[in-house]
Design brief:
Elements: H1 2-136, H2 138-145
């Protein structure tokens, strides 16, 4: 009888162990399935979040490339304007030099005109004095009227 109890207890222990083992296995399977579901949900969430970040990065890179292209265009425009300014500055320097040359020439012409005006006034006075002398000396007047002189009058 004890043997029967021992065999019964052994069989009960084996059955209980098998039942506990199956119950723990089922419980672990459920935990694994739940963990797998959570893992998949987290993985999907991370994949979607990474895709969103990737899109933001791509948009940022596109915007940076666009700004860099715009920067290049602005820089080229500024270089062109700087070249234009340099050409204008050179032209302005040349025009200023030409203006100084013209001003110098105008000054020289004004001085020459003043000198000629003075000479004309002197000639005019001389001419008036000659006319006055001629009027005072009738012999001279006769000679002048018969100009060119004939060889007999001189």
């Amino acid at each position: 009888m004890i043997e029967q109890y021992l065999v019964g207890a052994a069989v009960g222990s084996v059955l209980a162990a098998a039942f506990v083992s199956r119950w723990q296995k089922a419980r672990c399977s459920l935990g694994i399935a739940r963990a797998r579901g959570e893992f998949e949900a987290c993985r999907e969430s991370l994949v979607m979040e990474a895709a969103g970040h990737r899109q933001e990065i791509d948009e940022g890179n596109a915007a940076a490339a666009q700004r860099e292209a715009e920067y290049g265009r602005v820089l080229d425009d500024l270089r062109g304007q700087a070249d234009g300014i340099a050409r204008l500055r050179t032209a302005l320097d040349a025009a200023s030099e030409a203006q100084r040359g013209c001003a110098h020439e105008a000054q020289r012409i004004a001085e020459e005109a003043a000198r000629l005006k003075g000479l004309a006034a002197t000639f005019e006075r001389w001419h008036e004095q000659m006319n006055s002398l001629m009027a005072q000396n009738p012999t001279c007047m006769q000679r002048t009227r018969s100009w060119p002189p004939s060889s007999s009058t001189w």
